[in-house]
Every structure is written in C-alpha cells, then in structure tokens.
Amino acid sequence: MSDASCLHFPIDRYPGMNPFVLAWMKSDPSATSFLQRFDGSLSGWRPSAVASSTPSPELCEGLARTNLAWGLDVRDQLTRWAAGGTLTAVAGQQVGFAGGPLYTLVKLASLIKLKRDNEAAGIPTTAFFWLATEDHDFREVAELALPRPGAGQRDLIYLRATQSVASKRVVGPQPIPESLIEELLNVHPMERPSWLRTGISFADSFAELLREAAKDSVILVDALLPELRRAGGALFAAIVDRWDSIQSALSTRSAELSAAGFAPQIIPREGEAYTLLFRLDDRGNREIFDRSSALDQPERISTSALTRPLLQDAVLRPDLFIGGPAEVAYYAQIEPLHRLLDVPTPRIALRAHTLLAPRRILRLCSRYSIEAADLFASADSILAEREPEGVAEIRKIAAQARRDLTEQLTRIGEIALPAEHALARAINRSIGHLEYHFGKLTERAIRGLARKDRERYAAVREAVATLFPDGTVQDRVVGWFAYWSEFGNDLVERVIAESDADRREGTIIPL
C-alpha cells in the first residue's frame, strides 16, 4: 500500500531525464511514432505470439542450475513459464559491487510490483531480472557511494577498487578485490556475509544479494550463461547475415530521430560502423567481432548495447520490458531491427523513480513549503527563490546603482575626451570592472538573504545533500545497500509499494 507521507515530483523535474522519454511518456506523436506507448494496463492480456516460442529444456535447466547456486529454487516457475500461458516481464541491470546504486533496487522493485499487481488481477506472470555480466567497465562496477555512518545523509564515502584491470575483460566473472570488501566492512561493520566471501565474483555476489532482497519473486538471468548464448545462436547468425541491412537501418533511424529533435542514444565513431557484436577470447576480453569469423561458438559471442535487448527478446520473448530512460531510448533506436530480424518487440514501460530521505527532512520541507521538485538544485538557489520580494528588491537597487554610476562615468568621458583621448579606454575598463563587482555584490547579498533563516537553510542543505548529492540524483550514485543494512526487507517492501512502472511522477519515501 502506498505511503501517504511520501513526497512526489513530476518526472520532468528529474535531472537529466532523456528528452525523448519525456515526450514519449506524454504520448507525444513525435516520440510514439518511433516507439509505441504502453498504456499501463494489462487487464486484457492473453497469451500471444510473443510467448509462443517454447524455450529449450537446455535453457531452462541452465537457468534453474544457476539460480539454485545463488540460493533460489525457481524450477517450478520455469516449468510454468516454459509451458506457456504466463505473461513474461523482464528488467535488468549491470552487476555492481554491493548491489550497485539505488536505482538497481528500484528496477527490481518495479518488476516485483508489476508481477504482484498482475497476479492479484488474475494474470499469471513470470519475472526475469537480467544480470548484465558481460560489460567490461571495471571501474564502473567496482565503485560505490555510501552515506557516512552517523552523518545522516550529508556526507558520502566513495569506495573504489585501487587495482588496475584490463579494460576489455568482462567484469561479471572477475573476483571482487579483497581491498574493496575490506573498505565496505570498515564503513559498515558487520559479520562478513556469504555474498562477500573471499574470491566471490561480481556476478555471484550481486545475484546472492538480490536473492536476499527479492526472495523468490524473480528468476535471475546471467547474460553470459552458455545455454542462453546457445539459445541466441540463430539470432547471432541472422545479425551477421544481415549486417549491412542492420547498419543501414540504424543510420536511417538515427537520422529520423535527429530530424525529430531527439539525440540517438548511440552514435558510432566518425567513419566507423555501429558496434553490433564482440567476441570473447580465452581470458574473457571483448574484441570487436569480425563479421568474416565463424559462428561455431555462440558462447564466445558478446552483445553490444544495441544488440543486448535483441538477445533478451529473442530468447526470453518478454511481453513487457521495464527499463530506465536510456534503455527506453535504446528501444526507440533499435525498433527497426526487431522487424528486420523477426524478433517480437515487447511493450516498454519506464522504471519507477524512487528516492529515499530521513522522515525529518520531509517534515521540514512541509514546514517551509519547499516542493520536492525544487530540491534538485543548490541550497542557495532554492532558498533565494523562497525570498522573492527581498531578492527582487536587491536586484532592482543594484541594477539602478549600476546604471547611475555608468551614466556618470560616461558623462566624465564626454567632458574630458577632447583633452585626454586615452580616457575612453580607461572608462570602458572601469565600467567593466564595476559591472563585475556589482554582480558579485548582488549575488552575495542574495545568498545572505537566503541564509537569514538558519534553520531553514540547514534543512534545505541536508535535503539537497540527500537527494542531489554532489550534483547527481541520489538513485544514480548512492548504494541501496546502506539503507537495506539499516532497515532490512521492510525497506524493500516499501520501495516495492511505491515503485509503479510507467508513472509520470517520482516518489521520495521517508525513512
């Protein structure tokens, strides 16, 4: 059940939101002409051609085996899914240290919320969570920001791996550096959990932590699962066979998106083609795929950002995909490839945008009439807007003083110019200096005005530090592990309750 004490903000106030997604969420034809809108209702769902392809016993066995290794017995769910008749929903995220940033939990919660709502409405649903284990950006997965214990939300500690790792090696199978685990345990002292045991890989650690949060609500999918890659063998062959047509289709669609005023999500390097596939060597390094190479080992093929959704959709045949803004934009760019390769396009829904804050911050926002949507800025600018009359008066006085002084200096020049030709340049320089200092003085006065209510300033400063730390939205940088370690699965349930996919507003949950 939704918590009435939550704060909400329009999704278009979420910093950095993809312009295409904003237009698409509003059902603007300029965007929906590229990607059909999901209407938010599945009440009329029936088994369709999307789910008509029967998954292989080998794939089901591989999924059952890996999930059991992570502590999840999903065999019954897989049997029901393979038999057909259940709606299939998918979300996913790159594996990251200690569960990655908050939006990982929000994606998972959006998927679980959809499944629960469907089944309450009599729609049997199978939910898959795709673990992106094949990316090779080690630095991205081995970095996490956590609130400093005892400092509320105002101070973040950044944990980063110090070792140097080859940049092209897929990260999922790599062991988590012991130094990174020690950093986490120093920040959050606890008995060392099994998902941080010595030598555990990023993929296994991530999956086992998600198991703790999601229980048996979802089936986890390792993107590097050999059975999954073999199931995608026909797709890989089709991509190679239609390589030139795919490149042409992507170029055409990108040009159409640009003409409509939207930036394509992926642009190839100048003079180069779009990257479609990689090949993995014996050490797990990703090398650009040579289209003349043999495709006799699909387990060695790795997808790019453009073809990953195609593999997911070809093998799992989802009815619905829940993704973040970038993932929605990917689908707009690759939609022609689904038709070209005869891969059904699932309905697409935007993940929820759910943030967390101490309850006292939400109370203070209410006391000072500060809107949640206004908290994605600096404390000074927020409070300056709360003093419109005083700010306007300061700006008016400063502007008038600037005009008066400039007018008098100009008059001096007019009088003295016949006698001193160099005076004109000196006066122009003086005017420039005065305008600069008037501007600085004005802004300083405005900041002073904003700070005159110290309690309000402190409250807004903490709210901004919590929801927009270091100029980045909380869910993109702060790890959910810190909140989960304090509030446990009660936090997970609250996030699930507030994480409706395809919602046009974001939510701030009080803790």
Task: Offer a quick outline of the entry.
The chain has 511 residues and is α/β, with parallel strands linked by helices. It is built from 21 helices and 13 strands.
**What portion of the residues fall into strands of 2 or more residues?**
5-15%
Helix content: 40-55%
Mean pLDDT: 87
Shape: globular
Offer a few descriptive terms:
511 residues, alpha/beta, five-stranded parallel sheet, three-stranded mixed sheet, 21 helices, 48% helix, globular
Overview of this structure, please?
The structure is a single chain. The protein has 511 residues and is α/β, with parallel strands linked by helices. Helices cover 48% and strands 12% of the residues. It has 21 helices and 13 strands. It has helices spanning 19-25, 29-32, 57-69, 75-82, 102-120, 138-141, 178-187, 202-214, 226-231, 233-241, 243-259, 308-316, 325-340, 359-367, 379-385, 388-416, 423-450, 454-467, 474-477, 481-487, 489-498, and strands spanning 7-10, 87-94, 125-132, 143-147, 156-160, 219-222, 277-280, 286-288, 301-303, 320-323, 347-350, 354-357, 505-510. The strands form 4 sheets. It has a 5-stranded parallel sheet with strand order 6-3-2-10-11. A hairpin with a 5-residue loop joins strand 7 (277-280) and strand 8 (286-288). Helix 14 (359-367) packs across helix 18 and helix 16 (388-416) runs antiparallel to helix 17 (423-450). The chain is globular and about 95 Å long.
